[in-house]
Write a structure and sequence with these properties.
By secondary structure, this protein is an all-beta fold. The strands form 2 sheets. It has a 4-stranded antiparallel β-sheet, with no helix packed on it. Strands 1-2 form a two-stranded antiparallel ribbon. A hairpin with a 3-residue loop joins strand 4 and strand 5. The two termini are 14 Å apart.
Length: 71
């Protein structure tokens, strides 16, 4: 959700929806995350672009920016 935390990954199973993980970032999310060809989640925030592993929510890298990030 834009401007809100946490980010959640939800998978749809046959019986119910299952939340795989959730992570709270210390930054405001300014646009919906994008998914790269390799599955990496790119999360644009108010001060950085954050790349996250979709399997475990581990931050792979983040690039501090002078303005808003858009993925």
């Amino acid at each position: 959700m834009i401007g809100k935390n946490p980010i959640s990954v939800v998978l749809d199973s046959k019986r119910s929806t299952v939340e795989e993980w959730s992570v709270k970032l210390d930054r405001e999310i300014v646009a919906p995350p994008s998914v790269g060809e390799d599955g990496t989640l790119y999360v644009p925030t108010d001060r950085a672009l954050i790349a996250m592993n979709p399997d475990n929510a581990e931050v792979q890298w983040q690039k501090e920016l002078k303005g808003l990030a858009m993925a």
